[in-house]
Design goal:
- The protein has 194 residues and is α/β, with parallel strands linked by helices.
- Helices cover 40% and strands 17% of the residues.
- It has helices at 26-38, 49-56, 75-81, 100-109, 121-127, 151-166, 169-176, 180-188; strands at residues 6-8, 14-16, 18-22, 42-46, 63-66, 69-70, 73-74, 91-95, 113-116.
- Strands 4-3-5-8-9 form a 5-stranded parallel beta sheet, sandwiched between helices.
- β6 (69-70) and β7 form a beta hairpin.
- Mean pLDDT is 79; it is low at 1-14 and 131-146.
C-alpha cells in the first residue's frame, strides 16, 4: 500500500483504499476517519455491527476495521455472520483491550492487522496488506502475495506498544504478567522479521 493511501495495482492503475470503521466511541470514529481521509482513503463508519451490515449492502470496502466488542457483541461472531460476503482477510482489529491471547487468536484467523489503541491513521494504513477483496469499484486483484506478519512479530509489536504506553519496564511487566528481567531480555533482542 502506498504512503498516499492508495493500493498500487498491476499495470500502474491507482485505486483508493476504502475502509469501514466500526466502534462504539463516536469521537474515536470521527478523529480516525478524518485522519484516514486526509491520507486519501475513502472512509465509512458504523457504531454497531448492524449498522456495518447495512453499509455492506451498498459498499464493499477494502478493509473493515473494528473494535473487539461492539454493542455487546464480539467481533468473532460478526466475522462468522458475514463470512459468506466478506473474507476474514478483509478485517483488521484496532482495540483498547489488547492481549497476547486475542492477538494470537486473530492472527491465526488471518485478519489483516491487529493494533492497540491509540493508533495513528498512518500506522493503520502501513499495517494493512496490499491485497483487497472484490467489489463494484475494485480493479482486478493483484498477483502480489500477501505479506502477513509472523506470530513472533505480532507478539513483539504488542509488547513494544505496551511498554511505550506503560512508561516503565516495571509497569509494562506488571501489565503483561511477566518478570521484569525477562521482559528486559526480550526487549534487548532484535525485532523478529515480518
Amino acid at each position: 500500500m502506498g504512503r498516499d493511501g492508495v493500493d498500487r495495482e498491476r499495470g500502474g492503475e491507482v485505486c483508493p483504499v476504502s475502509l469501514l470503521l466500526i466502534d462504539e466511541a463516536e469521537t474515536f470514529l470521527l478523529v480516525l476517519a478524518s485522519e484516514l481521509a486526509s491520507l486519501g482513503a475513502k472512509v465509512s463508519t458504523a457504531r454497531t455491527f448492524d449498522a456495518a451490515t447495512a453499509v455492506l449492502e451498498f459498499q464493499r470496502p477494502s478493509y473493515i476495521v473494528s473494535e473487539l466488542r461492539v454493542d455487546s457483541r464480539w467481533l468473532t461472531d460478526y466475522i462468522d455472520e458475514v463470512a459468506g460476503r466478506v473474507p476474514v482477510q478483509a478485517f483488521a482489529v484496532v482495540t483498547a483491550y489488547p492481549s497476547v491471547a486475542t492477538a494470537v487468536r486473530f492472527t491465526r484467523m488471518g485478519v489483516a492487522a491487529y493494533l492497540a489503541k491509540p493508533v495513528l491513521a498512518r500506522d493503520l494504513m502501513d499495517a494493512l496488506p496490499v491485497q483487497r477483496f472484490g467489489g463494484v469499484s475494485d480493479a482486478m486483484p493483484t498477483t502480489v502475495p500477501l505479506k502477513w506478519p509472523t506470530l513472533d512479530r505480532t507478539i513483539w509489536e504488542y509488547i513494544s506498544r505496551t511498554c511505550a504506553a506503560a512508561g516503565s519496564i516495571s509497569e509494562a511487566a506488571r501489565r503483561l504478567g511477566l518478570d521484569r528481567r525477562s521482559l528486559r531480555r526480550m526487549l534487548t533482542k532484535h525485532p523478529p522479521n515480518r
